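R.M. (postdoc): so does anyone remember the format we settled on? I'll just put the structure tokens first.
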């Protein structure tokens, strides 16, 4: 008969307190606190780029080719002070929001159809293969013929620029949702739009957010390019028209001030709006570090 294994003695240990682990909380130096701030690091990069710009422009000594950073900043502050750049930026943003909103809604509709039926999936794959490689600005001549000279043509072009990257990223995110989450939704009796809203959209939100960022970038640069084209036939407009108009009168610092405004708005949207959305969603949910 097999021998009985010996009884193992029981040991009761007290809970180890946190301060007994031997972890030393070393205070950070001033340099480490400054370097750990992402905003400070980005501001340093921008300052270095501005310094390189200033030095190279001074070396060229030709303001018709490249004005200095200080000349551009002076023109920018002057145009902001008299309200011209603010009005132009407001016109551009108003048109952009219309195009972006319609493109976003259209992308969601097409993506929902793709997730609810095979015909919808085939429709999305066919349309994206046909239209996504087509540059949005290439549709501007057709938009002018169909819709005439005005904001409607620009909105039409913006919808094309926004719709396909958002639809592609959203559809890719939906397809990447784990089978476990899908079964949880089915077990709760979810179906149709409720299944998409409560299961697919939260799980695929990192892909959706990436699509929103790409769509914003495409829409912003398409808008400026479209306004530059409209500058040949229109006497008013947004930032693109501002750049075109000052190029014609050889006010190059104002041209760079307009470009500076385009860049500044892009940085603000990326680092304020999308960063806040990211912090309150995917990072808060533990989906990104």
């Amino acid at each position: 008969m097999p021998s009985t294994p010996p009884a193992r003695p029981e040991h009761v240990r007290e809970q180890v307190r946190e301060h007994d682990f031997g972890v030393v909380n070393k205070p950070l130096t001033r340099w480490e606190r400054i370097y750990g701030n992402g905003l400070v690091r980005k501001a340093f990069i921008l300052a270095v780029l501005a310094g390189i710009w200033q030095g190279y422009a001074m070396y060229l000594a030709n303001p018709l080719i490249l004005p200095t950073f200080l000349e551009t900043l002076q023109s920018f502050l002057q145009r902001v002070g008299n309200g011209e750049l603010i009005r132009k930026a407001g016109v551009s943003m108003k048109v952009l929001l219309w195009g972006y909103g319609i493109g976003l809604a259209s992308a969601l509709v097409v993506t929902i159809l793709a997730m609810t039926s095979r015909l919808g999936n085939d429709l999305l794959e066919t349309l994206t293969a046909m239209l996504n490689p087509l540059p949005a600005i290439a549709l501007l001549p057709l938009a002018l013929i169909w819709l005439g000279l005005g904001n409607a043509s620009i909105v039409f072009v913006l919808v094309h620029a926004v719709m396909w990257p958002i639809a592609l990223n959203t559809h890719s995110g939906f397809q990447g949702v784990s089978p476990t989450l899908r079964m949880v939704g089915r077990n709760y009796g979810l179906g149709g739009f409720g299944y998409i809203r409560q299961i697919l959209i939260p799980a695929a939100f990192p892909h959706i957010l990436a699509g929103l960022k790409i769509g914003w970038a495409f829409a912003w640069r398409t808008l400026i390019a479209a306004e530059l084209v409209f500058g040949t036939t229109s006497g008013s407009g947004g930032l693109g028209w501002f750049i075109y108009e000052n190029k014609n009168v050889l006010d190059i610092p104002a041209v760079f001030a307009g470009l500076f405004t385009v860049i500044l708005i892009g940085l603000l949207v990326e680092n304020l709006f999308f960063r806040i959305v990211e912090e309150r969603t995917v990072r808060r949910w533990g989906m990104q570090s």
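R.M.: ...and that's the designed sequence above, right after the tokens. Also worth knowing: The CA atoms of residues 78 and 84 lie 9 Å apart. The chain is about 70% helix and 0% strand.
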